[in-house]
Structure formats: structure tokens, C-alpha cells
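Please check the following for our workbook:

***
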Amino acid sequence: MKPISILHLRDTYEIGGPGKTILETYRAINRERFQLHLGVFLRRGERDDSPFIAEARRLGMPVHRIDGFHQYDPRMIVQLNRIVRDHHIDIVHAHEVKSDVIAYLASRLRPVPIVTTLHGWIGNNLKGKAKIVLDKCVVRGFDRVIAVSKQIEQELLKAGVPRERLRLLHNAIVIEHYQRTGKRGVLQEVVGRPVDGPIIASVGRLSPEKGHSDLIEAIAMVRESGHKVSLVLIGDGPERQKLVRQIEKHGLQNVVHLPGYVQAPHRILEEVDLAVLPSHTEGLPNAALEALLMDVPVLATRVGGTPEVIIDGETGRLVEPHSPRALADGIVEFLSAPQAWKQMAAKGKERVVTHFDFEARTRKLEAIYKEVLRGLA
């Protein structure tokens, strides 16, 4: 029997959460029943050696370029349909607004089943908010719409996605990849100098919706109250220079470190005392799953699907978003009772192992693919 061919579409440079999900799905999926391909959007002439593409190729995943002179070049629709035809693709699986729009338009010209996973939306400005409105309209025409959290599921229902096409499939994690080794020194190597403890870390793209500015303000408050802590912001992005200026304004150059993008941040987590997720919006954060599996307590904002992982007072602590003071109070609470927080992290780890295992998620995804094709038979 010919394997079902799935073409995943992704517009990204870094691996990130959704990208990691695609790559781990390629590793975990039943190769006898499914063949996964990756379609990547690039500007005309852009190099195709980004961390995401390089890792996909290293794993042996077939990678297909989709080139455009601008973000929504209609020629990309033609290229996508050519890939679908030439590689006998059975299902196209999109992962963000751009791939949703292009997959939808391509399927109108050359009928092919389309699936999307909604990882969350970013509305930092008017353009971003307009894209959210567009996406919620477009996905109503998909054969299956996968929400990674209950909060996203509810938003999609309100947006008019038919209940019978909607599936809840939480983000998950390959548990065996996250084992403590006892190795020290990775953090110093990445940062370029020793980092004084206690060490707080936040893993995520340096983008406004991630709330790093709030966290820097919180660290300034914590330091002013007499507590000595260091902060490591693991990631890169458009907010970097703004954050650097904020760090300099508070005189925190020796306290807050920005090592940039790190492909395996869980190795750094071995040396971290507290993970903080100060986000203004989230789908379901892989960073929380990773921290808990590495036995690191988590302080996070009450947004998106985060409360489905962090149960306040049980598996971690939650505070309201957009509040540096609430983050500072949470950090001080941790510093005052680190053992109690470690106990919450242990319960959180049990929850991740029980509810967010990647093998189980992959089997559910395989069932969705089969369901889509059965519905068209």
C-alpha cells in the first residue's frame, strides 16, 4: 500500500515550537503508512540553509523551496500546486497565516485536502491583527483545523469553524530527549562569561508578544529589593535592540544576558533555577513543557493554553500578563521558598509525562489524516 504523502508548510528561519513539532512528527510518524515532506517559503534568491531547513535535511526529510518576490507572491500558489502534482501529495498541512492562505488558494485551483494547525496568533500591531482576522476566515474552508489548546479551540468555534472539522491536539514533547546529564558549563560557554546565581531563564523569540520587557522590569524590581539574581533570555528576534537599551537604562548589563538563538536550550536549563514565561499571548508553550521535564520550576503568565500545563499552585505559578510587579512578586516568592517550587516542578513533570507525550500525539495526528481521506472517499 502506498504511504499517505503529507506536505507540511512552514514560513520560518528558526526551528521554534511549531517547527520542532513538524520535525519531531517526521521522526515519530509510522513511515510505512505516511511520508512527510516539507515546503518552505523563501524570498527569491534567499539561501536555504536556515537552522530549520538544515535540521530537516539532516533528518532526511524531503525539502521543497517555494520562492516569491514578496510575502504573498501569487506565483507561490503555482509552485505549491506543482509540488503537490509532482510528488503525489495526498494532504497539505499548513502551520501559520501565510501557509494557511496559500494552501487554501492553491486547493481552490487544484483540489487537495488541506489541514492546518493553529499554534496561536500574534497581534502586536494593526497588520498583525488584520492577519488574525484573515486567518480565522480562511481556516473555515479547511478540511480539518487542529487547535493546540482549549483556548484556541474556543476562539475557532467563535470564528465560525464548524465543530465537526475542529480537533483539539495539544502540543507535546519527546520525553526521552529531556534527561539531566549533570554536565555544567554550557551556560557559561553560551553567554561567554560566568553567570551568578540564582539563575532565571526565559526561552523564546525576542518579540513583543513574549513579554521580555516586562520581565526585565521585574528583574530591576527584584534587584532593587535586595535580591541577587541573573536573567538569561534565550532566543533572538526583532526586539533585541530595544531590550538591550532597556537593560542599559536599568544598569543591568552584568545581570541580564542575551546569548541569542540556541538550538538545544534544554542543555542550558540544567543550570537554571527558575524558568519564567512572561508572554502576553501563547498557544501552548513548549518552553513550559521543556522546563518541567528538566526539573525546573515555572512562573508563567495566565494566557492561552499555558494554564493547561501550569496549574497555579500545583505544577507551577501563574500571574496576570502585562504586569512586571506580578512577575517580580512571583520571583521573590520563589527565592523565599525554592524547595516548595521544586515540589511543584516535580508534579508538573508528572503531568507532562502523562498528558503531553509526543508518541501519543503522533498517533492522534495519524488518525486525523486517515479521517480526512476517509471523508473524501
In short: The chain has 14 helices and 13 strands.
